[in-house]
Amino acid sequence: MSAPEELAGLEAVALSDRDLPASTYELIERSAKRHPDKIALHLLPGGTGWREPNSWSYSQLLSRVNKAANLFAALEVPSGGVVALMLPNSGSAYAALWGAQALGIVNPVNPMLAREHLIDIFTLTEAEILLAPAPGVDLLLWQKALDIAAAVPTVRMVLAVGGPPQSVSETATGDFDLLCAEQSGSNLEFEERRTLNEVAAYFHTGGTTGVPKVAAHTHLNEVSLAWSLAQRAEFVDAVVLSGLPLFHVNAVHVTGLAPLSGGGTIVALGPLGYRDRMAVEDFWRIVEHFEVSLFSGVPTVFSSLPEVPAGVDISSLRCGIVGAAPLPARVRLDFESNTGVPMIEGYGLTEATCASVLEPLGGRVPGTTGLRLPYQHVKAVDVDAGGVPIRDCPTGEVGILAIKGPCVFPGYLRRHSQGVRLDSSGSVFDGWLVTGDRGSVDGQGFVSLGGRAKDLIIRGGHNIDPRIVEEVLLQHPDVEAVAVVGRPHAHSGEVPVAYVVLRGHAPRDTDSLLAWARAHAPEPAAAPVFIHEIDELPLTAVGKVFKVPLIRDATRRVVDAELIELGLRGRTVVDGDRVSVHLAEDTADDRADQLRDRLLRYHFECEVRRESRMPDL
């Protein structure tokens, strides 16, 4: 039976007839009743001690979740109240994550976000309890949590994880693990239970520029995704390695609730996850030791993995699931030739819970990202200048992908004149989430991706997908990694430029590489105008390539080139779409005006000013 036929067979039964658990808590509770003694979690201490994990059975996991939920209730968190997590991955983090959802709403965040962003997030979510590493674990992060708590009116307690608080604070503090130990683990000691349509979690999206958006997930979102993933062959009775942080939806759902839904086992790679160099070095030995069935990561995770050592048996591994960023063909080729294990590409976004499209295991259709998951529907649409859908695209035509189904989020948390509420306006139209990602859907329902619409480089009317240029450069044997962005251009609007990481042995000859790239570009307009060598690509906390610093650098280089051509001495500062140029105080008015006139040719806003003290340039 083909993958589309299997999908149709599953959907012959309505989702409402599937007897889904009413909440994420009930999902874990059901699995614990079915498999009480089976291992649910192997908690690795890190890259050096992975042979001696702290392992929890399903009954032990449920007990820890019960204890956390009962603690939050004892601390008078109301039903629907918010518990925020600033934590690395750990057993306590898992217990708090699902314990908070049993009573209210969990708000896991990237603890490395700027203090101001975290204050904005917790103020918006109205977090009441904040969990952070104890000072004996991470003193700086503990102090950061206390500072944030003091600035957020609703936060009334900070709980230390991994040790006692050991500090005086304006905000009440407590020892999470010690307080949990005092609670009952046999059952929930409060009567009200969460239901499918209630909010289970708040996840921030992005957060690397501006104030992060806060997306809400309902229990239906999370339970239905876990159930649909658990129906796939690669998840059946699977041992799933998890190395992404728990503020990332992939870790919570694809390598979290999905295996638990099917009675599988999670191998948590440790507090640092894939950022633990020792764990990555021993990655294949860890796979062998725990007989891992699958793991999931972003493309940079796969490209960083070492070769499989001689004598290491990874025959248990069914596949590697890759998503969250476009998959370069070379990364897939290198991984599959090294391991003999297939990579499965997926597509999704936080606003659709996590995953909406996944390649069938053994049923890959070249050029596509896969088939939609059960009960999720995907189409391509044309949108107007405001992003509103105006028509459905015919089969195979590229448009903006839209998703509909039980995994579409209820909205962003936004502040309005009457208070904070969920708002999906501008994102969801008649139940269809407009993703902002370019793509098409073929006659069998297979989805092809074309990159983010906002990442397009528009060169004199030519729409250039940077992914295509990156794929070309990755074919060159000297190129380890690449990111292509638009550089402002006075005539064409934008032109493509490439930032490359060269392999260790490669000659530092970007001129030859530029000539090669131009010769192999799919069209003249897509040929990069410049190639800049850098030591490493900037990445987000979960390993996605973060292009914003590169875009700013490309803009700065344009302005600096204008300064050099005019013979002016100045300093360029790029902040988002706004540029400021600080000229020496003795710069003549007409020369400053000349620079202003030249910069008006570009699409960015620019302010030219003089300052009395110039740094040495």
Automatic annotation (TrEMBL):
Coiled coil: none annotated. Residues 29-413 form the AMP-dependent synthetase/ligase domain. One of its GO terms (molecular function) is acid-thiol ligase activity. InterPro entries: AMP-bd_C, AMP-bd_C_sf, AMP-binding_CS, AMP-dep_synth/lig_dom, ANL_N_sf, ATP-dep_AMP-bd_enzyme. Residues 469-544 form the AMP-binding enzyme C-terminal domain. It comes from the Bacteria. Gene3D superfamilies: 3.30.300.30, N-terminal domain of ligase-like. NCBIfam families: PRK07529.1 (NF005714). This is Acyl-CoA synthetase. It comes from Rhodococcus erythropolis (Arthrobacter picolinophilus).
